[in-house]
Write a structure and sequence with these properties.
The protein is α/β, with parallel strands linked by helices. The N and C termini lie far apart (72 Å). The strands form three sheets. A five-stranded parallel sheet has the order 2-5-1-6-7, sandwiched between helices. The protein has a two-stranded antiparallel sheet with strand order 3-4. The protein contains 17 helices and nine strands.
């Protein structure tokens, strides 16, 4: 394109300079209108929509947001720490906590609003959303303090960036974060938008279809990491270590396994039909992560296009027991028996409860490729 030929030497230099500047800062300057006004009698044109689209595609080429989804998985915070350990990663811990109740399907619109605002680093609108959320569910905000700070669990050890990178909290003597309210949410929005990566961790995702809506309506490049484990471990983890009657046990198992099976089946269908999850979804089994934390972390980093560094490797070796270490994997997942790694949950269930949980969770167990143990169901 040579818009400034056939005009005076002085005006030609001005036109050329503006033309080059317009190429460099195409999104910010409506350079075609400027050039036409200076170099011809034509009126300025509208913003070049093709240039704007090209710019938005360029800034979205790398992964900007990661949804770290957990189906009530124990030890999930260990995986979250591989993000939390990295500088310039804004890690948001359980932002849907106020809406995580048995009626979560009724809160789809509000849940998506919160996730969209965080993925775009727009925090000033969260205070109103959280106020509405707590009024709907009547949950206590004592531990999460979403209303105090405008973000949930700001003082949690899981959100180190508030003190390490953003400088809006301080570290206490025991490593805890001490935050003072109110947060400057405009500053937090700016810091978030400048961070290398945003990670949003959600436990007990109500409906995988929400993720599809979020990904399809956002210009921010988002990827999904789905953390899973044997659903029988999840049931055991949800029940705790106290005694429960069989009726309550069946209710919890039914809720856990139905939600898990529905979400996994939806993801499988989306992947097989070349749908929105293609290239944007990674499934990680916690059992596999504990057996090879370094290898699985490398797979996760490759998926979201970030580099493994020696600091993360040292942290993994020092903090996550593996099958080759003296401690072995955590007791919730695997233990060594007869020179073989077996699921630790199996010894936690009586014969009757084992039969009940495998009867109820049979579809989810098979869909994820785990082994059945109850003799009558083999």
């Amino acid at each position: 394109m040579k818009p400034c030929l056939s005009i005076s030497k002085y005006r030609y230099r001005i036109c050329l300079a503006l033309f080059i500047l317009g190429k460099v800062l195409a999104f910010y300057f409506v350079y075609e209108g400027v050039l036409h006004t200076l170099c011809s009698s034509h009126t300025p044109t509208k913003v070049n929509s093709a240039i704007k689209q090209e710019f938005e595609e360029t800034i979205s080429e790398r992964t900007q947001t990661v949804l770290l989804l957990s189906e009530g998985t124990s030890d999930v915070d260990i995986v979250a720490e591989i993000f939390n350990q990295k500088n310039e990663v804004s890690y948001f811990y359980e932002p849907l906590y106020p809406l995580s109740d048995l009626r979560c399907n009724l809160h789809e619109s509000l849940s998506l609003k919160i996730l969209r605002n965080i993925s775009k680093c727009q925090f000033t609108a969260l205070a109103e959303a959280y106020d509405t959320a707590f009024k709907l569910t009547q949950k206590s905000d004592k531990s999460s303090r979403c209303l105090d700070f405008g973000v949930c669990f700001a003082e949690s050890r899981n959100s180190k960036f508030y003190s390490r990178d953003a400088g809006i909290c301080e570290l206490g003597q025991n490593g805890e974060q001490i935050c003072r309210k109110p947060f400057d949410l405009n500053f937090l929005s700016k810091h978030c938008s400048q961070s290398f990566l945003r990670v949003i961790k959600i436990t007990n995702l109500c409906n995988m279809q929400w993720v599809g809506q979020l990904l399809n309506t956002s210009y921010v490049k988002t990827k999904v990491i789905h953390l899973l484990q044997d659903p029988r471990v999840t049931v055991h983890h949800r029940m705790g270590h106290g005694k429960t009657n069989l009726k309550v046990f069946r209710q919890v198992a039914g809720q856990v396994c139905k939600q898990l099976d529905t979400n996994v089946q939806y993801a499988n269908d989306a992947l097989s039909n070349n749908h929105w999850l293609q290239g944007r979804y990674l499934r990680v089994k916690m059992e596999e992560f504990h057996l090879d934390p370094v290898g699985m972390t490398q797979q996760i980093y490759d998926f979201i296009e970030i580099n493994m560094n020696p600091q993360i490797q040292r942290w993994l070796f020092n903090n996550i027991p593996t099958a080759t270490s003296d401690k072995g994997p955590t007791s919730e997942t695997l233990h060594l028996k007869n020179n073989d790694w077996m699921p630790a949950w199996k010894e936690k269930f009586s014969g009757k409860k084992l039969f009940q949980v495998e009867t109820i969770c049979k579809d989810a167990v098979h869909r994820l490729g785990y082994k059945m143990f109850a003799k009558n169901l083999l």
